[in-house]
Amino acid sequence: MEITRNRPSLYGDIAHGLGFWTERSEVHQAAAQGRAARLRQLIGDGAAVNAAAADSMAPLHEACIRGQARCVALLLAAGAQVDARNIDGSTPLCDACAAGSPDCVRLLLEYGAAVNPPLFTFSPLHEACLRGNLDCATLLIQHGASTEAHDCHYGTPLHVACASKHYHCAKLLLNAGANVNAATLHETALHCAAKTRQVDLIELLVEFGADLHARDNADKKAIQYAPLGSPAHLCFRFYEDTPLSLQQMVRAALRRILGANALRVFSQLDLPSRMVAFLSYAPPPPVFDV
Fold first, then answer.
1. CA dist 83 to 74, 91, 114, 174, 190, Å?
2. Nearest-CA neighbor of 236 among 285, 194, 290, 265?
3. Is the pLDDT of residue 13 over 60?
4. Would you say the C-alpha torsion 223, 225, 227, 231 has a positive or negative sign?
């Protein structure tokens, strides 16, 4: 799977080249350029904050795409529609996640922005993981974003994180209970990691219980996408030749059973700190000499 989305610049550069920019209002322009004082003046004079351009872009979209948090706050306070959709079907929350602006994301969530869109569409969590915007992804998950949101083209956020080589987003999703073996067209996140030759992602997914023998629509296992003799291929061979230890299998089984509650449950167990760290896929605590 190859990720080819070009946002957040899509509606700035391309739309400008097609002539859409001239159809935008002065409110659009002030919001996009971060001119908060001018935007406040326009709102005070009664300018429409929900006016949409030819591509259904509202001023709130413009502000979010460019991470203009002050303008986002002004527009929301003036009644901007928090879940307005543009011609691409994206909401301001999607745009803020694509832009990597936690401040904009927080504002939108405070005003009730929907974190889970209709089925089979690119979600705000997909956008955050596509760009590797860990802070945005964390906020979304804290507000109930589904780690199993499924886009009919790109799969789950875990597929997107692995295809985009974003290790920390992938680990965040897995710790939040994402299904490591979720498939789109039979392709798993492990196939994505193999295609990008990311050894750290391959190791992470296998440790979380990824199925080394899962086959995609081409009847290929993930290892078959790693060039022979490459570090990724050698990593796969190691795991195929060296089964997980009993400890690792128990950990993976517990994670499957507990799902998103795993970290909370582990932290409450009366176990040694090193064992809790192991179960939580966290670095072991330091050992001090006595």
1. 16, 5, 7, 27, 33
2. 194
3. no
4. negative
Q: What is the pTM of this model?
A: 0.85
Report the C-alpha gap between 74 and 33 in whole angstroms.
Answer: 14
Cβ burial, residue 148 (10 Å; 0-12/13-18/19+) = middle
Distance of CA 276 to the CA centre of its chain: 27
DSSP structure string for 39-68: HHHHHHTT--TT---TT---HHHHHHHTT-
SS3 184: strand
- The 3-state DSSP class for residue 188 equals strand
Out of 1.10.10.10, 1.25.40.20, 3.60.20.10, 2.60.40.10, select the CATH number for domain 115-277. Answer: 1.25.40.20
Distance CA 99, CA 105 (A): 10
Q: Do the first three CATH levels of 7-92+101-112 and 115-277 match, i.e. the same topology?
A: yes
pLDDT, tens digit, for every residue of 164-209?
A: 999 999 999 999 999 999 998 789 999 999 999 999 999 999 999 9
Whether 137 contacts 143, CB under 8 Å: no
Q: How many CA atoms lie within 13 A of 69 on its CB side?
A: 11
- CATH top class, domain 7-92+101-112: mainly alpha
- The candidate with the shortest Cα–Cα distance to 79, out of 116, 31, 111, is 111
Longest dimension (CA), the chain: 72
Each domain of the chain, given as residue ranges in start order, spans: 7-92+101-112, 115-277
Q: How far is CA 249 from the centre of its chain?
A: 27
